[in-house]
């Protein structure tokens, strides 16, 4: 759990995303011979036209004669990487009725074959350049845009020029023929199929209701099966010619290179591009309109009740207004800040009402500009029972109070303090903002037709308007947020007959009395008023860990710590506390409390601090309280800052020294688990989320998702009985990495973790527990889902190992998993279109001697399950029988090398690599070989690994198929049956 309220955590969504980019204080000097299209001197860059927002002068902007616009900047995070984004103003809202899905299909076809890339050569080509397909190389299509993304690691001049060349061919001249359509349409249909099911039906039904009368109601980016299967090369070419034009294109590049060189490459490869045929204006996206004859404010329009037996109840209503392009001025952004604070106030009150035992599990208010189609305020409610009207009334009553009465200045000050710490942190961390994030922010700004600003500008605007945050101003903006042209609503329920559209409309039209009970005490709480953890401890050992100047600290009560003060990430301090037994600590009878603990342990409080007090004490602070149950340890973690480090450590230590056992969070977690459980049957992926770990751990109850019967018997009293001894067991290791004062951190450790009593040892029988793997068998475990009849999933897994001493082997297994994954993608996606995104994963528990595995997984049609198992068996057998080629190996090791090089520039990477090292020095030594272990190997070594792990026994097989169907078996003599022999 994060101590910041939900509204502030989502501030980047509530504010214009374009405001979140770093800046410099002066325009960069341009060398002679700079591209002519760069907008320099007094020329207003294209993105700032009509705005008085101060320019972020680290960005250079250009606009070419053909209409193409670009933005480039120098950025060294991570080193040697360049992030490129190509945004096309072409999304699903640009499609005609017979073109539904074409914008997304064009994205696929651009990767399939283009001027400089042969058929299906995009993935291997980018891999050879060190880019991981799917993360470094990707694309996305929304209703308003298609964005092609490349994060190019080790961007040498040659690799960078080659990348711009390849991208230009993909955008300007994709090969759009019937052969490529025949190859890509099945892949798109596989993607559509995997997205389908109850959740997707709700998305579609909600769109049709909330955006009724607008193109957005009918324009899902994935398209329809009819239009996709009916696509012709001529029709797709016409779509490309109409929208893939330079005037519809924005190119953004940020990376560890001279930005002028980036501008030169943009102009070199796109400067002579000319559109085909006349320019076509974007279609009208329409406005939300009230029902005929409606009068007054917020008339209720379309409502719908969607019955999905396997989904929990949820209700959304939206107050909708027309979207209009704005002049992105400082005054406009001041208004957005007032809007954001108004929402934060209401969301905090809604959360307090839920915590106090309200009729809903959660509720949330959020204003959003949706696809340039509407400016809407959305209210989402999750009723706890079939009495949805009571939940809706409770939520509307809290909102009615915010509309009737101004908030107190103290409430406003509390939210302002939260905003201030967020914006100040952005300034502190501006030097470590990733180039990929900066590039994405420009794309978002273009999409919503707004500008970009430096973090210093955002903070300055916010602090400069503090006198404008008055109760009257907040009330005015709150009322504006809940005023619109029409109100629409959707209720999702598992029960037929529970509600209908007319009842929903009546409930929304009913008057509600304001409920002031959710208004919160805003008086501050000070850490100085809290009791000490105990008598401060003493440091008994300070020594070098033997790597990068990192220190090992030991306190006289046995607590150990890893300290690494450094300025690699200004303003950030990462804290991670490991203790206890993790999954090992639970017995079969109390395993249900493991799942409840992940949701309720922290929320149940610390000492005299309940949930509300924890929120108040962290106001204006950068603090968090994340909790996780791992295989062999429990962890607390947080991203904080030097000024808050001591208090962050106090909260963590106090949870161990003086835990509070408030029952309400346990009951709320129980209710949430009950509501969610039935939804696990909605699709193959949901069933796997529920059951896969359980079956891969040989049906160990500790890894089971609690069912309704298990949940029914849980109580807050038993929760405490299970968790209280677990918090007292096992050694503690504290890791602190980042920009902090070493002496102050040591003193804080003495006063917090050093003041804890000595720990109870983990019982030997618990410490010895390791998860089992299913016994060898050629049978397939078959599970069923209640979703669409054309959806299935298949899993095959082989056991590997675990432990520290075999870590080098686990890293080599990562290479083998990537080799396997590339081949499985080729077999299931490229050749057959049977699965959109099959993957192979390597799991290796460092803290346990067993439990590792290689797992291949795919979503597909039920009839393709035998083909998946046959393909996986064939790949496993071939890897064991024949070494891979050097080129195939290079396509895996080079992206891994670049991934590690980038990750190792951050503190979190080293923190995770070194956890546990204060008691096991082997971990330090093994960090030294990490890069080699992941990237240096031979084809023969891969073959030997495959022989040891893939050929030694049959893989464990699991399939998830539709309820009422039987697993299809490979027919004798069929391709799948022969391949699987």
Automatic annotation (TrEMBL):
<dbReference type="InterPro" id="IPR011765">
    <property type="entry name" value="Pept_M16_N"/>
</dbReference>
<dbReference type="InterPro" id="IPR011249">
    <property type="entry name" value="Metalloenz_LuxS/M16"/>
</dbReference>
<dbReference type="InterPro" id="IPR050626">
    <property type="entry name" value="Peptidase_M16"/>
</dbReference>
<keyword id="KW-0482">Metalloprotease</keyword>
<keyword id="KW-0378">Hydrolase</keyword>
<dbReference type="Pfam" id="PF00675">
    <property type="entry name" value="Peptidase_M16"/>
</dbReference>
<feature type="domain" description="Peptidase M16 C-terminal">
    <location>
        <begin position="232"/>
        <end position="416"/>
    </location>
</feature>
<comment type="similarity">
    <text>Belongs to the peptidase M16 family.</text>
</comment>
<dbReference type="GO" id="GO:0008237">
    <property type="term" value="F:metallopeptidase activity"/>
</dbReference>
<keyword id="KW-0862">Zinc</keyword>
<feature type="domain" description="Peptidase M16 C-terminal">
    <location>
        <begin position="715"/>
        <end position="892"/>
    </location>
</feature>
<dbReference type="GO" id="GO:0046872">
    <property type="term" value="F:metal ion binding"/>
</dbReference>
<keyword id="KW-0645">Protease</keyword>
<dbReference type="GO" id="GO:0006508">
    <property type="term" value="P:proteolysis"/>
</dbReference>
<dbReference type="Pfam" id="PF05193">
    <property type="entry name" value="Peptidase_M16_C"/>
</dbReference>
<protein>
    <submittedName>
        <fullName>Insulinase family protein</fullName>
    </submittedName>
</protein>
<dbReference type="InterPro" id="IPR007863">
    <property type="entry name" value="Peptidase_M16_C"/>
</dbReference>
<feature type="domain" description="Peptidase M16 N-terminal">
    <location>
        <begin position="78"/>
        <end position="204"/>
    </location>
</feature>
<keyword id="KW-0732">Signal</keyword>
<feature type="signal peptide">
    <location>
        <begin position="1"/>
        <end position="26"/>
    </location>
</feature>
């Amino acid at each position: 759990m994060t101590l910041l309220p939900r509204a502030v955590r989502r501030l980047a969504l509530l504010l214009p995303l374009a405001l979140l980019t770093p800046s410099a204080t002066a325009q960069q000097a341009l060398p002679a011979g700079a591209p002519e299209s760069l907008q320099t001197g007094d020329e207003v860059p294209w993105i700032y036209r009509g705005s008085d927002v101060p320019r972020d002068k680290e960005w250079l902007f250009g606009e070419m004669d053909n209409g193409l616009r670009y933005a480039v900047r120098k950025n060294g995070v991570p080193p040697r990487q360049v992030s490129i984004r190509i945004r096309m103003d072409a999304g699903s809202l640009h499609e005609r009725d017979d073109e539904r899905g074409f914008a997304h299909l064009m994205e696929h076809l651009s990767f399939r074959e283009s001027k400089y890339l042969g058929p299906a050569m995009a993935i291997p080509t980018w891999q050879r350049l060190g880019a991981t397909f799917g993360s470094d190389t990707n694309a996305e299509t929304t209703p308003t845009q298609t964005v092609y993304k490349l994060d190019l690691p080790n961007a040498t001049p040659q690799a960078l020029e080659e990348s711009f060349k390849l991208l230009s061919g993909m955008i300007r001249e994709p090969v759009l023929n019937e052969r490529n359509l025949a190859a890509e349409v099945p892949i798109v249909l596989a993607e559509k199929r995997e997205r389908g099911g109850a959740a997707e039906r709700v998305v579609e039904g909600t769109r049709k209701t909330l955006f009724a009368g607008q193109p957005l109601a009918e324009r899902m980016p994935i398209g329809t099966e009819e239009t996709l299967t009916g696509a012709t090369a001529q029709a797709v070419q016409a779509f490309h010619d109409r929208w893939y034009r330079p005037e519809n294109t924005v190119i953004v590049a940020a990376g560890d290179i001279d930005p002028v060189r980036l501008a030169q490459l943009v102009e070199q490869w796109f400067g002579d591009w000319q559109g085909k045929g006349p320019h076509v204006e974007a279609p009208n996206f329409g406005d939300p309109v009230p029902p005929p004859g409606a009068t007054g404010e917020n008339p209720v329009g379309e409502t719908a009740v969607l019955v999905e037996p396997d989904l929990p109840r949820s209700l959304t209503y939206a107050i909708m207004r027309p979207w209009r392009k704005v002049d992105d001025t400082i005054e406009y952004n001041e208004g957005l800040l007032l809007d954001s604070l108004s929402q934060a106030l209401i969301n905090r009150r809604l959360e307090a009402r839920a915590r106090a035992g309200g009729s809903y599990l959660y509720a949330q208010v959020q204003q959003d500009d949706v696809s340039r189609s509407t400016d809407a305020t959305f209210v989402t409610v999750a009723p706890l029972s079939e009495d949805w009207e009571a939940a809706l009334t409770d939520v509307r009553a809290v909102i009615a109070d915010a509309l009737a009465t101004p908030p107190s200045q103290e409430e406003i000050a509390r939210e302002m303090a939260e905003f201030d710490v967020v914006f100040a942190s952005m300034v502190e961390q501006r030097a470590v903002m990733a180039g990929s994030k900066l590039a994405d922010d420009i794309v978002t700004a273009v999409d919503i037709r707004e500008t970009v600003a430096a973090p210093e500008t955002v903070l300055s605007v916010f602090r400069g308007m503090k006198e404008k945050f008055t109760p009257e101003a907040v009330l005015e903006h709150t009322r504006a947020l809940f005023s619109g042209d029409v109100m629409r609503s959707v209720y999702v329920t598992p029960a037929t007959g529970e509600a209908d559209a007319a009842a929903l409309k009546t409930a929304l039209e009913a008057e509600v009395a304001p409920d002031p009970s959710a208004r919160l005490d805003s008086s501050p709480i000070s850490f100085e008023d809290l009791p000490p953890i105990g008598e401060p401890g003493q440091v008994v050992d300070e020594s070098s860990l033997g790597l990068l100047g990192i220190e090992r600290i030991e306190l006289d009560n046995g607590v150990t710590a890893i300290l690494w003060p450094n300025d690699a990430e200004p303003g950030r301090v990462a804290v991670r506390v490991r203790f206890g037994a993790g999954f090992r600590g639970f017995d079969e009878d109390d395993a249900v409390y493991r799942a409840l603990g992940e949701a309720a342990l922290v929320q149940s409080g610390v000492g005299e601090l309940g949930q509300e007090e924890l929120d108040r004490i962290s106001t204006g602070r950068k603090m968090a309280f994340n909790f996780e149950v791992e295989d062999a340890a429990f962890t607390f973690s947080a991203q904080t800052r030097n000024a808050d480090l001591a208090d962050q450590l106090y909260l963590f230590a106090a949870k161990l020294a003086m835990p509070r056992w408030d029952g309400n969070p346990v009951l709320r977690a129980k209710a949430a688990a009950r509501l969610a459980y039935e939804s696990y049957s909605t699709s193959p992926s949901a069933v796997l989320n529920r059951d896969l770990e359980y079956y891969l751990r040989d049906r160990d109850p500790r890894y089971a998702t609690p069912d309704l019967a298990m949940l029914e018997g849980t109580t807050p009293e038993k929760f405490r009985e299970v968790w209280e001894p677990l918090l007292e067991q096992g050694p503690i290791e504290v890791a602190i990495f980042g920009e902090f004062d070493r002496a102050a951190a040591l003193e804080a450790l003495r006063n917090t973790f050093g003041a804890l009593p000595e720990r109870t040892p983990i019982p030997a029988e618990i410490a010895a527990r390791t998860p089992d793997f299913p016994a060898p068998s050629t049978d397939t475990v078959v599970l069923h889902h209640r979703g669409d009849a054309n959806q299935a999933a298949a899993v095959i897994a082989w056991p590997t190992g675990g432990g520290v001493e075999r870590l080098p082997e686990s890293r080599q297994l990562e290479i083998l998993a990537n080799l396997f994954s590339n081949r499985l993608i080729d077999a299931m996606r490229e050749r057959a279109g049977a699965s959109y995104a099959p993957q192979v994963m390597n799991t290796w528990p460092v803290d346990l001697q067993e439990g590792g595995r290689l797992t291949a997984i795919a979503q597909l049609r039920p009839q393709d399950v035998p083909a998946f198992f046959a393909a996986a068996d064939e790949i496993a057998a071939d890897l064991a029988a024949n070494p891979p080629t050097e080129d195939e190996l290079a396509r895996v090791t080079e992206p891994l090398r670049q991934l590690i090089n980038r990750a190792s520039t951050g503190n979190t990477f080293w923190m995770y690599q070194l956890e546990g090292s204060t008691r096991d020095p082997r971990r330090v030594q093994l960090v030294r070989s990490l890069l080699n272990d992941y990237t240096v190997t031979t084809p023969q070594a891969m073959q030997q690994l495959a022989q040891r792990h893939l050929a030694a026994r049959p893989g464990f097989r699991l399939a998830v198929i539709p309820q009422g169907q039987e697993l299809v078996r490979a027919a004798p003599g069929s391709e799948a049956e022969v391949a699987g022999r």
